[in-house]
Amino acid sequence: MTEADACATEDLLSRAVGGESAAFTALVRKHQRLVYSLALRMLSDRHKAEDLAQDVFLQLHRSAASIESAAHLLFWLRRVTINRAIDRLRREPRYEDVSLEEGLLLVSDACDEDPLLQRRLRELVGRLPAAHRAVVLLRYQEDLDPAEIARTLSMSINTVKSHLKRSLAILREQVGNTAAMGPDGTASRLEHAPTKHGSVT
Amino acid sequence: MSNNLDDQLRSALRAVDPGDEFAARVMARIANESMRPRRSMPAGYQWLSAALVAAVVFGALIAHDRQVRREQQGLEARRQLIEALRVTGEKLDLAYRVVNDEAHAATRENPGA
């Protein structure tokens, strides 16, 4: 985030706290990709992700006065989104397969990348335990370093590194299996991937 | 392989947009929430206040019941006192009449005394 960008966000934030709804709308537009994408990748369901993302912004509207800076806002949005997603996964355990609709929806728009491999990776990330999934998303979607991930998820850096290492090993193994077995055998070894939802606290 | 997987993950997990209308839907929900009457206190406190009101009403009922009983006991005591005074009066009247009758009889028997 550039300094000008941070200043613009803080200006929107202070105007939103002052009751200017246009400023809050602009804040939502600015951060909706972040919140919605984290929710979508955590829950693997478009409708639940939309619902959760709306809940996060409603909570932000109520507690905007407690946000101190643009960086704090980003930290707060990531943390609240992930925690709400994990709470929701605990309450209503997700079915194992990422739906075809989700797979098609999330296919990358870049033409030079393998859409099947990308879809497969998203499916595999969606099957990681919740805490591992949160770490992977913050690392590869949000581009945070392990220290920032640790702060966001209230974990030790060693736990973050261990989750990342374990997750990458699972993904590497599963992607390798997929490539070796071809499209018809993609689900054959996924039962071995851990599916129990972990905690980030 | 590691760098390749990192790149593939970054690409696969690229952020997606919820659509142009998302912000409008959020603002509609916020407007809807602000129109809804707010609960003044959490559910736990509401239970507590309901329990306090119930305790006060119960206490008032018990106090009222005691007061009514005390008044009834007072009335009963008054009734018993009046009855006792009436019986005592009758007995005194009877004793007076007996003494009076005996005095009259003695006067008749000894007129010169």
Protein architecture, described:
The complex is a heterodimer of chains A (201) and B (113). Residues 96-101, 103-111 and 181-201 of chain A have low confidence and may be disordered. The two termini of chain A are 27 Å apart. Chain A has 201 residues and is mainly alpha-helical. In chain A, helix 2 crosses helix 4, helix 7 packs across helix 9 (157-181) and helix 8 (146-153) packs across helix 9. In chain A, 70% of the residues lie in helices and 0% in strands. Chain A has two domains: 1-94, RNA polymerase sigma factor, region 2, helix turn helix motif (Rna Polymerase Sigma Factor, Chain: A, Orthogonal Bundle), CATH 1.10.1740.10; 102-201, Arc Repressor Mutant, subunit A (Orthogonal Bundle), CATH 1.10.10. Chain B is mainly alpha-helical and 113 residues long. Chain B has one domain (2-109). The termini of chain B are far apart. The A-B interface holds A 21, 24-25, 28-29, 32-34, 36-37, 40-41, 49-50, 53-54, 57-58, 61, 105-106, 108, 110, 113, 117-119, 121-122, 125, 136-137, 140-141, 143, 168, 171-172, 175 and B 1-2, 5-6, 8-18, 22-27, 29-30, 33.
DSSP summary: helix tally of chain B: 3
| Beta-strand residue fraction of chain A | under 5%
- CATH architecture of the largest domain in chain A, please? Orthogonal Bundle
- β-sheet strand percentage of chain B: under 5%
Name the quaternary structure: heterodimer
Please tell me the total number of domains of chain A. Answer: 2
Largest β sheet strand count, sense and barrel closure of chain A:
none
SSE arrangement of chain A, N to C? HHHHHHHHH
| Low-pLDDT residue spans of chain B | none
State the domain count of chain B: 1
Q: SSE order of chain B, as H and E?
A: HHH
Q: By helix and strand content of chain A, what is the structural category?
A: mainly alpha
Name the average pLDDT of chain A: 82
**Main beta sheet of chain B: strand number and arrangement?**
none
Largest interface: A-B, 39 and 24 residues
